[in-house]
Amino acid sequence: GTGLVTVGETLGLLVAEDVGPLSLARGMRLSMGGAESNVAIGVARLGVPATWIGRLGRDPVGDLVERHLLAERVRALVRRDDAPTALMLRERRTGGSSHVSYYRHGSAGSHLCPEDLPEGVIEGAGVVHLTGITPALGPGPAATVREAVRRARAAGVPVSVDLNFRSRLWDAATAGVVFRELAAGADMLFAGDDEARIALGVDDPDAATPAELATALAELGPSEVVVKRGRHGATARIEGAVIDVPAVPVTAVDAVGAGDAFVAGYLASRLTGRDVHERLSTAAVTGAFAVTVPGDWEACPRPHELTLLTSGETVHR
Ligand code: ATP
Q1: Which of 81, 162, 193, 260 is catalytic?
Q2: Distance CA 264, CA 286 (A)
Q3: pTM higher than 0.95, yes or no?
Q4: Active-site annotation holds for 260
Q5: H/E run at residue 243
Q6: Residue 275 domain flag
Q7: What are the pLDDT digits (tens) for 174-206?
Q8: 33 lines ligand 1 (CB under 6 A)
């Protein structure tokens, strides 16, 4: 296989146009978001085939998601469901921080089940990418993730997992058990340092350095582990070696989406046969791009744009 295949829930996203309490918002911008489809878009922008599998409602928000994915050249293998497409509302409380409310309980995406994985698609992938969000959506989604891992492994397809803890969906203790299982089934594992601690059952933030967290996660199974550390960059442990990846300095406008863009850069680079250092430096650039723009996936670069953040010239004619 050559391309990325991912499965998960994509939601309609309403973002307040102005900074301030959502209860006073006068306008909301309608878009879409979802960790897995964000990664698929990031990969497709870099010219690597990407497929997203999921359920959407028979509603205009479902149409919006399909239109965006089509426009981004992401192949969408979608079942339309009687339940509505989930929504999230994002309040921009201050310039730098936002707060999300979910309207996703009983959504179309939460009805995902193993039968939604079409025959041969997982088996034909270059990488299968999953997140720790999907198992929190219900028993069907949890079984779907497990089945995707099983089928990928049986076919010799590398499995990538981004833990992506969502405190609104479950508690850390419950998530931790599932995170360990996901880590054990993964070849590539991405985690924030907080998520690494949840997976490892470490409470004290000072108990382990990022390198120690990455090493402990690697002991659960994956040969490539990346601990993402926001503007502090990332620490990877890949085939036994620890590598520090500095962040690319940019003016941050919106931190949401950096993790997904980072993963997209890493996986696209891996799918095109790049070495570890090139994968990580591309990931740092795509992650940095994401924080320069308010959207979650809109800023993802195309290949010729990768050098824009590091080149000194500001006017490109
Ligand atoms: P999110 O869940 O908000 O999308 P995350 O917590 O999974 O993000 P981060 O650690 O915030 O992921 O970001 C991933 C990568 O993106 C970082 O390792 C870094 O390379 C890059 N990045 C994040 N924030 C910044 C920043 N302010 N400036 C430059 N690069 C950044």
Answers
A1: 260
A2: 8
A3: yes
A4: yes
A5: strand 241-245
A6: yes
A7: 999 999 999 999 999 999 999 999 999 999 999
A8: no
